[in-house]
Design goal:
The complex is a heterodimer of chains A (about 450) and B (about 270). Chain A has about 450 residues and is mainly α. Chain A folds into 3 domains: about 1-60; about 60-215, no CATH class; about 215-435, MetI-like (MetI-like fold). Chain A is about 65% helix and about 5% strand. Chain A contains 18 helices and 3 strands. In chain A, helix 15 packs antiparallel against helix 18 (about 405-435). By secondary structure, chain B is of the alpha/beta class. Chain B has one domain (about 5-260): P-loop containing nucleotide triphosphate hydrolases (Rossmann fold, 3-Layer(aba) Sandwich). Chain B is built from 11 helices and 10 strands. Chain B has helices spanning about 5-10, 55-65, 95-100, 115-125, 130-145, 150, 165-180, 195-210, 220-225, 245-250, 255-260, and strands at about 15-30, 30-40, 45-50, 75-80, 85, 100-105, 185, 215, 230-235, 240-245. In chain B, strands 6-7-8-3-9-10 form a 6-stranded mixed sheet, with helices on both faces. Chain B has a 4-stranded antiparallel sheet with strand order 2-1-4-5, covered by helices on one side. In chain B, a hairpin with a 2-residue loop joins strand 4 (about 75-80) and strand 5 (about 85). The two termini of chain B are about 25 Å apart. The chains are: A mainly alpha (about 450), B alpha/beta (about 270). The interface of A and B includes residues 323, 325, 331, 436 and 437 of A.
Chain lengths: ~450, ~270
């Protein structure tokens, strides 16, 4: 009797004690979860802030202001001496901006303008009009003397003013756009002769000191060459190295040392690789500076450790039972690797490679050291031609003083982020599609 | 050498000796796993290796087709013969050996490929089939021998990993048979299966014995008693007793064997 009473009392006291502990444990779990949610919220906040600033600053870069002009290809301006048959250079050197200015002048109904007015008229139209009209006339000589409606790019400051980016409350002498020009913009706007058009030049033009004509075409091609070079070098080298280390190499002090070093290389600041590339590829191997070949080689070195680490992890994730099964039916080690292990590790290898490529696409510092921070107006035709890269283009535009380069910098960042997002999404899709369960 | 083992060997001396281990010592680094093991594997019989966990029976099994070669720190000394030929001799090709001595593992491990490809893989890499029809016939025969064909004949192109555990294990047996081995090693083939699948596999083992020599590691003494003709009892890396299954289970000579089969150790 007394025994059983004692038993129940101990039992209940034990239960009580456990309850207390349980409360504490739940509280700890709640705290931990709250901290986790807080951490994620902070991360999301900064991501949203980044995207908002970049997009709000940059989306205008994808539209460019153009002015519609009734251009008269006036022989008196282009070739007053009528010598163009003997000297084709006359057509190349002619004063095409004068044609545009004349057209604008008559469109605005300005009679006998003074010199300062003429200067302001010139300031309305991009200097790119010279090339645009010259190409038109060269491809169709019958245009001489005729009048045609042409959309020409507005000058960068006019573009900014039309987009409402210039503060008009500032005194006239302190801003880049005069009151007269503002009046003309309004006048043209009321006639529907000024409009924003999609900015294809942003993607297809090379570098230019005039913002309205500057594009990242050369940078996109340069980045493309480099990605290609990284892919065809880093993938086979990385996979071969990983397969050897993971499947064939004996586990000893040397392979341990190599493994530690590969892991360390992944953490080496990329600018160090830039110095290495400068010394090795340019000073010793005498490869051309600013070439995407050299950039690709340097980025390969940077990407290799990432690919090797990802590939080794993917190989290690293939269950040993698959290896035993292959060896058990008499497959050689090479057959085991190529028939079973590599195909099963492929999704992981692919993901690692794409992540590595995305990392390489965003690298800037090493490319500065090998001279890719260059003013490249022409498209690089081969990887040996001078080129630049997307992030380097962003870096260079960020250094420009003109107002119109600000939106271009953000616009280029948007493009770069899009490329990275596409690559990462591709990695996820490929992994999901090829993932096999066992 | 232990006199008990000698006694046991005489019991099976009338059987043709397919494989033989003599003074087999195995060590993993500093740790020795097997001490001077002598076992004779009779042809067309099922030899069961029993003993408590960590006694070295799986280690010995893996020596028989040199699967231990894949472990860097594993060192094997002594002699193991297959048809009186030393399988650890430098002239022996390990790939060829494994084609002659197939293996079925503890956990069913089909390749993550179709049922057909699972079975066809072995013949394909060894060049056993001359034509596509030949290969198909081999796959069908192997699946029939493994007692699986009737269950999978309509879904040969579905993944082998989609089968039930017992079917997967029979698929692995079919895969081993397809290479046309002399000996099949089975490392606790039923430990991951339910009793019904286990019974199916045990019946299968009994049928396979007519064509193949089978060595099976098992934790279940009932299974050893049911399927095997000869039994070797391992304890702490030593071969304690070896003889016919009847003799081991009804009249064990060594006290440790007696204790193990009556459930006092292990």
């Amino acid at each position: 009797m007394s025994n059983s009473v004692a038993d129940t009392s101990t039992a209940s006291s034990v239960t009580k004690k456990r309850d207390l502990n349980l409360k504490k444990r739940y509280a700890a779990e709640r705290r931990f979860r709250a901290m986790g949610i807080g951490a994620i919220a902070i991360g999301l906040f900064f991501l949203a802030a980044l995207l908002f600033t970049v997009v709000s600053k940059g989306y205008t870069a994808f539209w460019q202001t153009s002015i519609a002009l009734e251009i008269t290809f006036d022989e008196g301006v282009i070739d007053s001496a009528k010598k163009r048959v003997e000297d084709p250079n006359i057509l190349l050197m002619a004063n095409y901006p004068r044609l545009a200015r004349n057209a604008l002048q008559s469109q605005l109904g300005l009679e006998k303008p003074t010199k300062p007015i003429l200067k302001q008229l010139d300031g309305m139209i991009s200097n790119g009009v010279r090339v645009q009209l010259r190409e038109m006339l060269l491809s169709d000589p019958t245009l001489m003397g005729k009048t045609q409606k042409v959309w020409v790019l507005a000058e960068a400051n006019i573009d900014s003013a039309f987009k409402g980016q210039i503060d008009l409350s500032v005194a006239e002498k302190n801003r880049k756009v005069s009151d007269a020009q503002i009046g003309w913009i309004d006048d043209l706007n009321s006639k529907g002769l000024i409009a924003q058009k999609f900015n294809t030049g942003l993607f297809f033009n090379g570098a230019s000191s005039r913002p309205e004509m500057a594009g990242m075409g050369a940078a996109i091609i340069g980045s493309f060459y480099m990605m290609l070079i990284v892919l065809i070098q880093a993938l086979p080298i990385g996979v071969a190295a990983s397969v050897y280390l993971e499947e064939f190499a004996p586990k000893n002090r040397w392979t341990d040392l190599i493994e530690v070093n590969i892991n360390n290389l992944a953490a080496v600041p990329s600018i160090v690789y830039g110095l290495l590339g400068l010394a090795l590829f340019i000073n010793i191997a005498h490869l051309p500076r600013s070439a995407s070949l050299v950039g690709g080689l340097v980025l390969t070195l940077i990407t290799l450790p990432t690919i090797i680490i990802a590939t080794r992890a993917a190989l290690r994730a293939v269950p040993p039972s698959i290896r035993s099964a292959a060896l058990g039916v008499g497959a050689s080690k090479m057959q085991m690797v190529s028939h079973h292990v590599l195909p099963l590790a492929a999704p992981g290898i692919l993901t690692g490679t794409i992540i590595g490529l995305a990392q390489a696409l965003g690298e800037t510092a090493p490319l500065l050291l090998i001279g890719m921070v260059a003013f490249v107006a022409d498209f690089p035709l081969t990887p040996l031609d001078p080129a630049t890269a997307l992030p380097v283009q962003i870096f260079m535009w960020a250094n420009e003083a003109e107002r119109a380069f600000v939106e271009r910098t953000s616009g280029a960042i948007i493009v770069l982020l899009m490329f990275l997002a596409v690559m990462n999404i591709a990695a996820i899709i490929l992994r999901k599609r090829f993932e096999r369960r066992w | 050498m232990n006199t008990n083992i000698k006694q046991a060997e005489i019991d099976i001396s009338d059987q043709y000796e397919k494989m033989r281990g003599e003074k087999v010592n195995v060590s993993y680094g500093d740790k020795q796993a097997l001490f001077d093991v002598d076992v004779s594997i009779a042809a067309n019989k099922v030899t069961a290796l029993i003993g408590p966990s960590g006694c070295g029976k799986s280690t010995f099994l893996r020596c028989l087709n040199r699967m231990n070669d894949t472990i860097d720190i594993c060192k094997v000394t002594g002699t193991i013969t297959l048809d009186n030929e030393d399988i650890y001799a430098p002239s022996v090709d390990v790939v060829e050996l494994r084609a002659r001595v197939g293996m079925v593992f503890q956990k069913p491990n089909p390749f993550p490929k179709s049922i057909f490809e699972n079975v066809a893989y072995g013949p394909r890499i060894h060049g056993l089939a001359n034509s596509k029809a030949d290969l198909e016939e081999m796959v069908v025969t192997s699946l029939q021998k493994a007692g699986l064909f009737s269950e999978v004949k309509d879904r040969m192109n579905e993944p082998g990993t989609g089968l039930s555990g017992g079917q997967q294990q029979r698929l692995c047996i079919a895969r081993a048979i397809a290479v046309q081995p002399d000996v099949i090693l089975m490392d606790e083939p039923c430990s991951a299966l339910d009793p019904i699948a286990t019974a199916t596999i045990e019946t299968l083992i009994d049928e396979l014995r007519e064509k193949y020599t089978i060595v099976i590691v098992t934790h279940s003494m009932q299974q050893a008693a049911r399927v095997s003709q000869n039994t070797a009892f391992f304890h702490l890396g030593e071969l304690v007793e070896f003889g016919t299954t009847d003799q081991i289970f009804t009249a064990p000579i060594d006290q440790r064997t007696q204790n193990y089969i009556t459930g006092r150790i292990g």
